[in-house]
Structure formats: C-alpha cells, structure tokens
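Sequence in, structure out.
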Amino acid sequence: MTTTTSTNGQSTDQVTNWDPRNLEDGALGLPVPSPAERAAMGRARRRQTPRPAHAAWEPTADRPDPVEVLIEQNRTRLPDLAPLRNRRMLESPFAYLRGSALMMALDLATTPSCGLEVQLCGDAHLVNFGLFSSPERELLFDLNDFDETSPGPFEWDVKRLATSVYVASMANGFTPKDARRCTEASMRSYRQWIERYSEMPALDIWYAKIKADDLVDLMSPSDRLVTRKTVDKAMERDHVAALAKLTTVVDGVRRIVADPPLVTRISMDERLTAAFPAMLDEYRASLSPERLALFDCYRFVDAARKVVGVGSVGTRCFILLFQGPNGGPLFLQAKEAGVAAPERALGGPPARHNGERVVLGQRKLQSASDVLLGWTTSGDGVPLYVRQMWDAKGSTNVSVLGPAAMATYAGGCGWALARAHARTGDSNSIGGYLGSSARFDQAVTTFAEAYAAQMMADHARMSSAADNGLIPVSPAGTA
C-alpha cells in the first residue's frame, strides 16, 4: 500500500497498482487485492470522508468572482465571439451552468473527496450525454463531450451531473420536491450500476454498452414516442445530410455556405490555409494505420469556422469538407482543446498536447469512439482535436421533459457515467464507499440543491455585470 493525499488535504490509503510486467519477486509481482478487499478499502474511506459530508456547500472567503473567471477565459478566445458566448450563457441558469465548468471545478476543489480517482469527463451535465453511432453502426447512448476530461475525484463528475439535473428540473417548472426526486434518481442509478459493474470482469466492463433502445425501454409508454423521435432524428444526421444542409455548388465545386456569425468562410489566402498541409499531416500521424488508409481515400475541398455549444463559443472550431473517390462526402470538425477545468482546479501537471488529452480521455471513457478521432495543431500553435462532425449524433431536449421522464433520463445518465467510471477507476472501491443505502444519493442531492442556488446567484451576478457594461453581450436575437 502507498499513502497519498486527497483533494481535501487528508491522507488516504491507496491500493498499490498491480503491474503484470513486474516479473521479479514472485513471478507476477504483487498480488491483486480481491474485490472484497478493495470494497473494504472503499468502506474504510468513510471514516475520513463520511458520505453525508458530500451534502455541504459553502463558498470560501476567497472564492473567485465568477465574472472575473469568465473575463479571464474570454481573453484566450476569439474576441469577436466573446459577446455571443456571454449572450448564450445569460439565457438561463442552466445555460450558465453549461458554460461554467471551470468555475464549478474551482468550487469542487474546496469540497470533500474520499480520494478515489477516475478519468473524469470534467463536464458531465445532462446535455453532454447523447446518442452517436458506433463503428459497427449501432446507435449508442453515452457521454459525448470530453473537452474537460482529466484524472480527478469521481465525486466531481457525480456532483456536476446532479447539479445539472436539479437546475434543469427547476427550469422546467418542477417543484423542489420533484427536482430532488429527479436528482436522487440519477444518483441512485449511478450507485446501483457501480455495484453491478463491480461484480463484472474488467473485459466485460470494457465491452459494456448502452444501446439507444435501452434508453427507450427505460421510458414510460407515454414518453417513448418522444424518445423514439430523438433516436430517429439522430439516424438522419449523417454526412450526406450535412452536405445538403451546409454546402452549395459554386462554379461546379462544393463550398460551405456562410451563415455569420455561426459559420464564417475561410478564404484560401488566410494563414490557416497556408498551414493546412502541416495540420493535416499531424492529424494523419495521430491515426492508426487502418484508419489512416480510410482517411487517405478523401481529398480536401473546403473549410469554414463554426460556432458550437455554449461554453465552447469563442474557441477555435473549424468544419472541414472532404470528398471521396466515389463521390461520398466527409465532414470533420477540428476544435480547440484548452487546459481542462479539473486540471486548472487541481493544479496538476499540464497535458503534453490538449488535443491528444481529449482524444485519449474520450477513448478511455466512451464505449465506442469515432474511427477518425485524432488531434493536430493550428498554424498559430493552438491544440485541436478532430472528429466526424455528423455521425448519427443526437441529444434529448431536456427542456420538454416532465418530472417522470426527467427522472428516467437522469437515471440513464447516471448509468452511463457509472459505466465510464468503472472503465477507468476501481468500481469495487467506489462501490464499497457508496454502499447499498441512499446516504450518498441524498447527500449529493442536498449539495446539488445548494449549489443550484449558487449557480442562480452567479447567473444573476453575470446579468448585473452585463447590464453595467462590464462584459460585452451580443444584441438580443443574435444566434
């Protein structure tokens, strides 16, 4: 055993990693602690961090000003898009939550942790779960945003998910009692699925998937129609559909249609285009040989800058159109990858390349990843990760869910998060810590309720800053 220090400053006993490459002193090195032993180690952590301790939220005296954090982030973003980002975040407390992953990570760094780490999504809110197509063309449900992925305490993802459920529930007009029920449903699902994964061999956990039909089956008969429409719509989002929606033919050549400020064309004499061959070479080097063979079938046609998301607005994001030898199109998205929010909050060593960090984190967490997932660097030195833009991707519109449907959908998100954490952490230790009672569920739900109030106060603070001209905001009606 080794002794480490948790994020709240307390020493913890941690299982020494078993390494099959260590052939000295006993042929296979140290023995692997049994599942029962690791579960007992997890239970032992309750002494230093009792489960009810996770209910607490109290801002520290030196808590950063959320508006200052926002202004600091915008300094590294495209200046013409910062007002649009601010506009989108001001739309509602839930929109503010979506754009404030860094602020919440800074706050979570001041809260208790039992010291069990996983590969974090880093931004596990409700809208960052969704549908996508696997390489085998199965439609799956899973985490689908990894910009903030980084190692860290498992509680951080859990608390961000719980807070998003509570905030979204209140935004939908639920009573506080119903909002708590929905939040507890997500936490109960997480805990119960961690327990189930702790009983499975590692290979079975790695192969585990949540199919779109599994999500539909969770819903009540009255809610299945809406969910089925989401599934059907996702299946229609492919490269051919993107070609029809986003491009037109100019002088016999396909070109991406400008739609400022959401889509801005890139002229062929700009610096990005001059650096484009080097960018593509670096991206090609990040692909495995069989996937490189696939990519090399395509030839570059056009590129444009595209605005995406809420928190991502202002980061560099490009859509790249390629054409295949038999006429089929390929759309790739190259998106800026900054320093992960958990990494900033924890002060850990910087990633070698933040595009690579996103890609490797996604491969660890997601049940099946895009075959053309890779990374590169822009001509001005900005790390980017690259993926297919439309590949049967879809997400649930949580704003139309009633209490029962929200609880079910939140439970599905808890399931997906548990599967991701079981792949990258010790599900036996986490399961041992969580236990079979609802104590952890209730504690995190209480935290979510309190932190939702903090989010609403921060949103109001941002609104006041906008009214006083401290931050620029795009005019009402701006996309």
